[in-house]
Amino acid sequence: MMNCRISLATFVREVRANPEKYDETTLYLVELIEAETQLDAIFQIALVLTDCVQPGLKERYVRFYQAAIAA
């Protein structure tokens, strides 16, 4: 979990440093992540954010997670 938090923090800093590279949705979701204190809510927002970075990634992650739980 710590690696995820570090990676997310790195991405948030990148978005803040170079906002011209990202669309309005990504900027908004990063704002929400920065304001949120609950880890589960941050995860949910980050999951939505994945589709901004790579369309379809969220669905692939959800399928992977569901398969891992079912195994």
Folded structure, characterized:
The protein has 71 residues and is mostly helical. It has one domain (2-70). Helices cover 80% and strands 0% of the residues. The chain has four helices and no strands. The protein has helices spanning 2-17, 24-35, 39-53, 57-70. α2 runs antiparallel to α3 (39-53). The longest helix has 16 residues, at 2-17. It is globular.
Summarize model confidence as the mean pLDDT: 88
- What order do the SSEs take from the amino end to the carboxyl end, as H and E? HHHH
The counted number of beta strands is 0
> What is the percent of helical residues?
over 70%
Shape from CA axes?
A: globular
Assess the beta-strand content as a share of residues: under 5%
Low-confidence stretches: none
Largest sheet: none
Number of domains: 1
Rounded to an integer in angstroms, the radius of gyration calculated over CA atoms is 13 Å
- In whole angstroms, the N-to-C terminal distance is 21 Å
Specify the number of helices: 4
| Class by alpha and beta content | mainly alpha
What would you say about this model in short?
The protein has helices spanning 2-17, 24-35, 39-53, 57-70. It is mainly alpha-helical.
SSE layout:
Blueprint lengths: L1 H16 L6 H12 L3 H15 L3 H14 L1
